[in-house]
Amino acid sequence: MTHGVLRRAARALAPTAALLALSALPAVAQDPDPFAKLENNRFAVELLIDSANAAGLPSNPLREVALQGIAKHADGRKIVDAVRKELGLLRIAREALSTGDEQELTAAASVLRAGAKPTQLSTFRARKKGRTVLEPFIDWADFLQRGVPNEEAYTAITKLWQDGADDDTFHSLWTNVKADISQGLNPGTALQNRIREGPGRASPATVKPPEGQQENQSSR
Amino acid sequence: MTDSELHPYVEWIAREARRPVVTDQAARDRVMAAVRAEPAPLHRLSIWSRLLAPRAFTFSPAGGALLAAGLVGIGVFAGSMALNRDGRMSVGRPPVAVAPQLPVSNTLVRFVYVAPNANQVYVVGDFNGWDTTKTPLVRTASNGVWTVALPLSAGRHTYSFVVDGSWSADPHAPLAPDDGFGHANSVKLVRGGSSL
């Protein structure tokens, strides 16, 4: 008899349990909030993101900077400063380029962060339809990171750009200059030599990867 | 002693109440005519008054539990929609931070890192929300080559490797300047088609 009562109770409670489980699903299925770790600085980051939206600037780059800071365990104030700086760079980039999608503005902001001047970016205002500044700006920022003086990097990149070089040509230039620098050549000299010789011409130094490293399969 | 003796008027009231009321036919007709002359009550009013009228509901224990569970579910759902994780009300704009998912794309990009002595290598970037444990590389050979292939959307992607907890830029990709956190990142430009 006790078993019968228990069975009836279980049968009666089963739908209730199922309903409770279903009702809890939306809460469980939500992704954890990646900004939760910002704690007191979250509001400042959100304000900056709102400012970007209000100014018609892309806000994703700001989120990426904040997430990157969280991933690198940066101090909250430092994250706010980095997001604020990124917003400022995006503003300058848009003024310099006049137009540009999120990708181009982010790449331009990266070049500015690396040390380029806003007036230099203005050279890239006039762009044919379908031609983007992504590859030139990525290479430019990299050259600055590797110690190429900004004026030399700017001169080389703008020369290729105005000559109508395609992305492969820019990438070849980057590959060759990087290889020359890793061989010990002065960064500025390496770039000048490659521009003089022709940016797409490979040298023996670029064929063999550095010892202990394997060439990365790039997306190109 | 009876109640009637205690309350002499009670007996009189009962007697009067039991006495049949005699009305003439003319009076009854006047009353009925007045009743018929009154407009019938509106149907809506009737429903409204029925809704407002107090009444008692009864539930079985199981039915009550079901109803309670449903109400709890609605409350949890509404709460999760209206509140941020920190308990503040959402103000009708999209969430500020949404963990980016791997973008749907047919462009597979292979990341390779050589670290013979490493125990764990992860790739971390804008394509996985900068999650340091989401995308591990797999050691593919005994010579310390770690690799993973990811579907990425076309465009510029910033990333870095985390090797046994230490950040490391990709030695075979362009460098992106430090965003203010002390580590340079790498950049990958995805155009289209598989790079595997």
Quick rundown:
Chain A has 220 residues and is mainly alpha-helical. Chain A is built from 11 helices and no strands. Chain B has 196 residues and is of the alpha+beta class.
What does this structure look like?
The complex is a heterodimer of chains A (220) and B (196). Chain A is mainly alpha-helical and 220 residues long. Helix content of chain A is 67%, strand content 0%. Chain A has eleven helices and no strands. The C terminus of chain A is likely disordered. By secondary structure, chain B is an alpha+beta fold. Chain B has a domain of 83 residues: Sandwich (Immunoglobulin-like), CATH 2.60.40.10. Chain B contains five helices and eight strands. The longest helix of chain B is centred in the middle third of the chain and has 22 residues. Chain B is rod-shaped, with a radius of gyration of 41 Å. The N and C termini of chain B lie far apart (112 Å). About 12% of the residues of chain B have low confidence. Chains A and B meet through helix 1, helix 2, helix 3, helix 4 and helix 5 of A and helix 5, strand 1, strand 5, strand 7 and strand 8 of B.
What distinguishing features does this structure have?
heterodimer; A: 220 residues; mainly alpha; 2 domains; B: 196 residues; alpha+beta; Immunoglobulin-like; 5-stranded antiparallel β-sheet; 8 strands; 31% helix; 21% strand; rod-shaped
What layout of secondary structure does this protein have?
The complex is a heterodimer of chains A (220) and B (196).
Chain A: H1 2-29, H2 42-54, H3 60-71, H4 76-97, H5 102-114, H6 118-121, H7 134-145, H8 150-162, H9 167-182, H10 187-197, H11 204-207
Helix pairs in contact in A: 2-3, 2-4, 3-4, 4-5, 5-7, 7-8, 7-9, 9-10
Chain B: H1 3-6, H2 8-18, H3 25-37, H4 43-52, H5 61-82, E1 108-114, E2 121-125, E3 138-139, E4 145-151, E5 155-163, E6 166-168, E7 175-176, E8 185-190
Antiparallel strand pairs in B: 1-4, 2-5, 3-4, 5-6, 5-8, 7-8
